[in-house]
Amino acid sequence: MPTLHIKVKVGDAEIEIKADGTLDKDTANTIKSVLAPLTSKISSAMSKDGASKDRDLGENDNGYTEGMNLYAKFRELIPNVFKYGQWFTSLDAKEAFHDTYGILLKSSTVTTYLRRLEEEGILISRKQGRLLQFRVATPLYAVIESRSEEPKY
Questions:
Q1: What are the DSSP E strand ranges found in 12-130?
Q2: Of all helices (H) and strands (E), which one includes residue 116?
Q3: pLDDT digits (tens, 9 = 90+) for 118-150
Q4: How far apart are the C-alpha atoms of 112 and 17, rounded to whole Å?
Q5: Where do the domains of the chain lie?
Q6: What predicted TM-score, i.e. pTM, was given to this entire model?
Q7: What share of the chain is helix, strand, coil (3-state, %, to 5)?
Q8: Which of 132, 129, 139 shows the shortest CA–CA distance to 114?
Q9: Domain 70-144 CATH class label
Q10: Cα–Cα distance between 11 and 68 in angstroms, integer?
């Protein structure tokens, strides 16, 4: 029985397709539709001569974030996504960044960025066994409560 195995890796993004049996027209079209967004991303990245890792390669960036490097995007995103004071892990932050910008960061990069945000006073952290958790230092509800305590004139 013939086996088709396609593995494509671009930076941190990786896709693997395996198909056993005969390759009919419908299966080929399905594979083509799965690979189309990835190939367009590769060609747009290659058209940027010497694009660095910190330049944006996402197709879903708006004009505001277009010139921002990855850390600047991360620094803006995390306090907005986790603004209610909930504890989150580096995996949560990694998924939020990927969902927003379509860029998959390495886990070590995410941890480094989170530690930088902690050093800047934007985040606080705690250790639960082997798990390291973060949260926004001044959550939205704390800001709202402090405003409601102001005297009314």
A1: 13-20, 123-128
A2: helix 107-119
A3: 999 999 999 999 999 999 988 665 555 555 555
A4: 32
A5: 3-47, 70-144
A6: 0.52
A7: 45, 20, 35
A8: 132
A9: mainly alpha
A10: 19
